[in-house]
Amino acid sequence: MTHPLNGRADALDLFRDFTPEEMQEVARVTATRAFAKGRVLYTPGETGEALFLLREGAVQIYRMSAEGRKLVIAHLLPFSFFGEMRCIGQGMYDTYAEVTEDSLILTMNCADLERMLFSKPQVARRILEAFGRRVLEAERQLEDIAFKGMAARVAALLLREAEGDEVVGLSHQDLAERLGVYRETATNALNELKSASIIRIGRKRISIIDRERLRRAAGA
What we know:
- There is one protein chain.
- By secondary structure, the chain is an alpha+beta fold.
- Helices cover 40% and strands 26% of the residues.
- Helix 2 (110-119) crosses helix 3 and helix 5 crosses helix 6.
- The chain is elongated, with a radius of gyration of 19 Å.
- The model is unreliable at 1-11 (pLDDT under 50).
């Protein structure tokens, strides 16, 4: 039976310079599970026993406020890894990980990961680099919250998420959760940009009409 890592394992940056024999060892020590949309993989304060490797689907890393609002920290797509801090005895800093599309996820237990870190120091460096990028993204989010109005934050998010001049698959609720605000707040900001003829809003589709003005609205 073909292991899910085979064929596209090189897309996992974590293992990008592994030999075929080393990839076979990775395949040997990873287990594959299918998770349905909505499954929560871990909750705040947990320590765990595995590194997660997303093979197919999507996973959301988020926090919850005392008022019950969700703030999405990261939206992970195939060939991302997460949960690495669990393997060094740290809690997850009040974060949840939730499957947002039916997903195929590989897990590597922490003992196997630790052995790999000793034999392949570049893997440890890549994990630290990924963690650093996530910290920078969290700092950017905090800066936006502190210094930007809601319309500017929405404009910046649309620019980041756009493929060409379209943002597809992002509902008003999704947008609100990415920004850590109520749905009505996000909707009001979208309508402000729509009224200015900067964007056009459809069902789970937002079209950018004037990218330059959207950039200015975002403060970019």
